[in-house]
């Protein structure tokens, strides 16, 4: 099997892309630590998936939670081979003149600090093993300025920078790091903004860009590519930013 017996930590595994990835990984023989801030959702997901999967309640904006989820993989399964930084939050589509500090910090702490905390803990473990694959979920918003607001866009550009730096720095030590520039996906990410209203004026400005999207993907479409990046089939792929958007970024 493609990733049989590999140990993976997947964030945001209670729903959407993370849930689809956890299910696919277990199906292909991996042992999974499924992390999510929503303890009820991730516990239910693990119960439904069955097999070698351990649910962990973790808010990736909290460094201690990130360390604990990586350590849980080691305590449960003895190692970590794959890290999927999928957890993320959306903004309200506000431009830089309108975004407030709370929204800016929320996008940065969850979308950037979280992957960094997890990678900082996982990378030394992977280096000691001489192998490891990190997959960061970026966005079409990391390829231009029209897909989201200033906070989300800046956070996803930062994820790409973190990916490239990691890929280059550790390329000779068996560690790989790649990112997916994901387009529109059928997930519940907009629920991450809570009850706050979307900036309608900003949304109207970026409407032309969104209208050029060829379509919307399903979480399993992303999960299949993550599986490839986690497997040895992609062992020579490192530092790549792969657009997974049905050609949206080609417009």
From TrEMBL:
Q: Does the keyword Aminoacyl-tRNA synthetase apply?
A: no
Which PANTHER family does this chain map to? 3-OXOACYL-(ACYL-CARRIER-PROTEIN) REDUCTASE (AFU_ORTHOLOGUE AFUA_6G11210), SHORT-CHAIN DEHYDROGENASE_REDUCTASE FAMILY PROTEIN
Q: Which CDD domains match?
A: SDR_c
Protein name per Swiss-Prot or TrEMBL: SDR family oxidoreductase
Record flagged with keyword Oxidoreductase: yes
What does the UniProt keyword field contain? Oxidoreductase
Q: Look up the domain of life of the source.
A: Bacteria
Which Pfam families does UniProt cross-reference here?
Answer: adh_short_C2
Segments spanning the bilayer are: none
Q: Which family does it belong to?
A: Belongs to the short-chain dehydrogenases/reductases (SDR) family.
Q: Recall the taxonomic lineage recorded for the source organism.
A: Bacteria, Pseudomonadati, Pseudomonadota, Alphaproteobacteria, Hyphomicrobiales
């Amino acid at each position: 099997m493609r990733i049989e017996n590999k140990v993976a930590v997947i964030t945001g595994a209670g729903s959407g892309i993370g849930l689809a990835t956890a299910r696919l990984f277990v199906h292909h023989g991996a042992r999974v630590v499924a992390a999510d801030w929503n303890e009820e959702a991730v516990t239910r997901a693990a119960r439904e998936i069955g097999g070698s999967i351990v649910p962990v309640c973790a808010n990736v904006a909290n460094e201690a939670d990130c360390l604990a989820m990586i350590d849980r993989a080691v305590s449960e399964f003895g190692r970590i081979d794959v890290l999927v930084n999928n957890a993320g939050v959306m903004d309200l589509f506000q431009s830089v003149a309108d975004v407030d500090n709370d929204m800016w910090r929320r996008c940065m702490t969850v979308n950037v600090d979280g992957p960094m905390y997890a990678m900082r803990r996982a990378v030394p473990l992977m280096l000691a093993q001489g192998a490891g694959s990190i997959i960061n979920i970026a966005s079409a918003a990391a390829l231009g300025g029209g897909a989201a607001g200033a906070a989300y866009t800046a956070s996803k550009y930062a994820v790409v920078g973190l990916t490239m730096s990691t890929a280059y720095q550790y390329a000779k030590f068996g560690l790989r790091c790649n990112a997916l520039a994901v387009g529109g996906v059928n997930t519940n990410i907009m629920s991450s903004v809570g009850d706050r209203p979307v900036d309608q004026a900003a949304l109207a400005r970026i409407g032309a860009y969104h209208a050029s999207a060829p379509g919307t993907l399903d979480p399993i479409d992303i999960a299949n590519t993550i599986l490839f990046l986690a497997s040895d089939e992609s062992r020579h792929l490192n530092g790549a930013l792969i657009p997974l958007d049905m050609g949206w970024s080609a417009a």
